[in-house]
Amino acid sequence: MGQDQTKQQIEKGLHLYQSNQTEKALRVWMRVLEKSADPAGRFRVLGCLITAHAEMGRYKDMLKFAVVQTDTARELEDPDFLTESYLNLARSNEKLCEFQKTISYCKTCLNMQGTTVSVQLNGQVSLSMGNAFLGLSIFQKALECFEKALRYAHNNDDKMLECRVCCSLGNFYTQIKDYEKALFFPCKAAELVNDYGKGWSLKYRAMSQYHMAVAYRKLGRLADAMDCCEESMKIALQHGDRPLQALCLLCFADIHRSRRDVQTAFPRYDSSMSIMTEIGNRLGLIQVLLGVTKCWMIQKELDKALESIEKAQELAEGLGNKLGLLKLHCLCERIYRTKEQHRELRDHVVKFHECVEEMELYCGMCGESIGEKNNQLQALPCSHFFHLKCLQTDGTRGCPNCRRLSVKPGYV
User: Fold this and answer.
1) What is the average pLDDT across 138-150?
2) Number of CB atoms found within 10 A of residue 27's CB
3) Which residues, 6+ apart, have CB-to-CB distance to 246 below 8 Å?
4) Which H or E run contains 378?
5) Residue 409, pLDDT above cutoff 90
6) What is the pLDDT of residues 251-302, one digit of tens each?
7) Could you tell me if residue 367 is left (phi over 0), alpha (psi between -120 and 50 degrees) or otherwise beta?
8) To the nearest whole percent, how much of the chain has pLDDT over 90?
9) Residue of 190, 95, 106 whose CA lies nearest to 145
C-alpha cells in the first residue's frame, strides 16, 4: 500500500468513525497498519487507533498502540513524531492510573523543546500531567499544571483544550470541596461547547454535562444533577463511550444515595463497578467503593461497610491516591466510634491527620482544614490555596506557605 492509498484509507476510516461506525473504522485502520509501507502513514493511523481505543475505554490496547507508535517515531527519526508519541504514552498510562509513569512521559515531552509540534502539544502535556498529579492528590502541582494548560489554550486560541482543562478544574475543585468553582468550570466548558462546538465531537458536551452533574449533586441540587447526568449518559450510550457510562452510573448511584434511596443506588454502583473493572479505571473503583461503603453505613451494616473500605484501601495504596486514603480513614473513624472500638478509632484519627499534613490540606492562614466541608477557596500565583475569607482578611502579604518552605531547618 503506497503513500496516497494509505492516506485515502485513513480518511475513509475517519469518515466511518465520525459516522459512529467504530468497528468498521477499526478494521480499515488495522488493514492500513498491516499493509502500508509508508512509516509516516503508519504513524498517523496508529494515532487514530489510539484515540478510538481511548474513547472506547480499551486502555490496554491504547497503550499497546502507543508503544508501537513510539517505535515508528524512532524509525522516522523525527522529533515532532517522537513528542506526539510520548504524549500518547503519557495519556495511556494516565487512563490506566499509572500516574508516576504519566508524569515521567510528560516530562520527557516537555524536555523535547524546539520541535514545531511541541508548541501545539505542550498544553495537552500539561493537562495530562495535572490529571496525574490530581490522581496522586498532589494538589499544588496539579493546579500549576492546569493553569499552565489554560494559558496554552488561551495563547493558541484552542477552545477544545480550554474545554477539557475546565472539566479537569471542575474535578479538582470538587475534590477539595469548593463546590462553587466545581460548578463554574464545567459550566464554562458547556458554554464553550455551545459557542464553538458545532464541528466538535459530542463527547465534549457529554463531558461538561457529567462534571456539572457531579457539582450539582454536591450542592444538593439533585434534580439538576439528574438532568445533566441523563444528558451525558444519553450521548455516552450513543457513542459507545464506556468510560463515561461508568462515571454516569456512579453519579446516578450517588444521587440516589443522597436521596437515601439505597436500594436504587446499589445496582447502579454494581453496574459502574463492572465497567470500571473492565476498562481498568482503579481511581473510579475507589469512588464506587466509597459510595457503597456509605450505603452500608446508612443501613447500619457496619461490617459490610468495613469490607468495602478494605478493598478501596488496597486500591488507594496501590495508586498512591492520598485523598482516597484520607476519606477511608474518616469513614473508619465514624464506624469505630459507633462500634466503640477505641483503639481502632485512635489509629484512624492519627492516620487521618497524617494524610492532611502530607497533602497540605489546611489553610496556611487560619490553620483550619481544607476539603472537610464546602468552602470558597482562592489560589495565589504560587498555586497554594487558602480560604477566600482568610485572604480577604489578611490582605496581600505574600504566601505564608512559601515563606515557611523558604526557612532553612537549621535556623528554625
Assistant:
1) 94
2) 12
3) 57, 272, 275, 276, 279, 281, 284
4) strand 377-379
5) no
6) 999 999 999 999 999 999 999 999 999 999 999 999 999 999 999 999 999 9
7) left
8) 66
9) 106
H helical segments located in 219-301: 222-238, 242-258, 262-279, 282-298
- Rounded Cα gap, residues 145 and 142, in angstroms: 5
Contact yes or no for 95/59 (Cβ under 8 A): yes
The residue ranges of every structural domain in the chain are 361-411
Rounded distance, CA 70 to CA 47, Å? 11
Specify the pLDDT at position 397: 66
CATH superfamily of 361-411: Zinc/RING finger domain, C3HC4 (zinc finger) (3.30.40.10)
Q: How many CB atoms lie under 10 A from the CB of residue 303?
A: 9
Does residue 137 surpass a pLDDT of 70? yes
Instruction: Let me know: does 283 contact 135? Beta carbons within 8 Å.
Output: yes
DSSP annotation string for 11-50: HHHHHHHHTT-HHHHHHHHHHHHHH---HHHHHHHHHHHH
